[in-house]
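User: Hey, my collaborator sent me this sequence without any context and asked if I could get a structure. I don't really work with proteins. Can you help?
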Amino acid sequence: MKNTNQKDTLLRVLKYIKKYRIYLILSLILAVVTVVLTLIVPVYVGDAIDYIIDVNNVDFGGVSRILVKIGAAVGITALSQWLMNVSNNKITYSVIRDIREDAIRKIEILPLKYVDAHRPGDMVSRIIADVDQFADGLLMGFSQLFTGVITIIGTLGFMLSINVKITLIVVCITPLSLFVASFIAKKTFSMFKLQSQTRGEQTGFVDEMIGNQKVVQAYGHEKANQAVFDEINERLGRYSLRAIFFSSITNPSTRFVNSLVYAGVGIFGAFSAIRGAITVGQLSCFLSYANQYTKPFNEISGVVTELQNALACASRVFELIDEQPQVPDRAGAVSLESVDGSLEIKNVYFSYVPERRLIENFNLNVRPGQRIAIVGPTGCGKTTLINLLMRFYDVNSGQIVVSGEDTMNITRHSLRENFGMVLQETWLKSGTIKENIAMGKPDATDEEIIEAAKASYAHNFIKRMPQGYDTVISEDGGSLSQGQKQLLCIARVMLCKPAMLILDEATSSIDTRTEVKIQKAFAKLMEGRTSFIIAHRLSTIRDADTILVMKDGNVIEQGDHESLMSRQGFYADLYNSQFSA
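Assistant: No problem. I've predicted the 3D structure and written it out in structure-token form, which is a compact way to encode the shape of the chain:
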């Protein structure tokens, strides 16, 4: 994984902002207008004070004219600030929308090995929580950073026009405030990044425990999980306290320096007024400017701290976006259209981890329409073989040829389109039952969907549901039983009628009577289609044309049921063990 530092992260953020530079320029212009008008008001106030010459000696006409100018300046300032905030919101939420879109697009093309190796909760935390934190920091940066910097520059210009000496006092003390803010900012970035990483770890753990609460309670693992959560939570609290401590001392530190600036201006200005170097109105104006000049340093120090958190969160999202995608389809890759169902595996080698060998020199020749059953002990490579056929993983060496075409020269989309797959682990999305069945064929008619449901023996229980096929189910099926969810997944495949089938323990959660019916439906569906069947209940694959017996990634026996039983080898031992007394 590529680690991004603060500078790289900031440059990436600026690239996203570049698309919305029109709003950025508009925000800058409005910030200038806001600051200039804000700085003019103290001048007007100082002039108004000078119109109050003595008791019973007030130029009310002059004061009235100034009050009108102040009202106009305040009104335009309010409008400018509102428009500036609209522009800043447009930039911020457009940028985080783009980042989230890039992150989701990357997840869709990430190799399966990345998804297998990372907790879903941590990935969710990056895309949701970290991006939200980043948005908060970015919005604060736009809202306060621009106006703060422009206020500092503008205030200096106005102060120089009134009195150079007093302005020099302000400028000489200011670098101390910048030094304090810079020192703290360097400390907070790494701490906020640790906080963000630990928050992702916590989200992943909570997601894992909630999703498997039945297993946790069944094995009495509550206390052990509580201990793990407490440890993660304690670390998160420790990192958060450090980050918040350093970020919270920024404002008081800069306020102390700013108070020194204000005191220096007040003392020197008072003596200057006594000597007649400046008027009382100018001193009042100068004190107002000194306050306005130092105030942005407090705001900017807070913004800088918040930006450390924002950039730390953004760097985690960018790490996900920068992950290596799956190897793209080769240039000139063809679409698999006319499929005869033939398949050949030639000298295939594959392992998930280089030092742990799995499939070695694997060869297989499948004729069109054959039913190939794959059996063997757990971990022998049965599901791995399916992963290779579907190109969820690519072979390390060798070839898999479908209908005369090397799968490496076929687009993944067209290859998978020709396979129908039912897994032991069911997956349903939030939506209606009709939408779940039609996932592989969105343009299917209601009649086709009902026909597929009847073929999979799901129609009866669907009709008993409140809204039938229009019943909305929650993520992963909600209140449906495991068997009902599996029937919906089978209906999904029966609707698509693919050229080839992969059945990985497809009836493992279905009662025996329904399984007999499903097997008949599958037998009808498999007519003329090449089918790969993974099964632990060997009674379900007795009619397969070829049975591959796998062990340690190799095919150790091959043949039909009768020939394998007659050999009295590994398959016969497996089969007999399921029916022994």
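In plain terms: The chain has a mean pLDDT of 81. You can pass these tokens on to your collaborator as they are.
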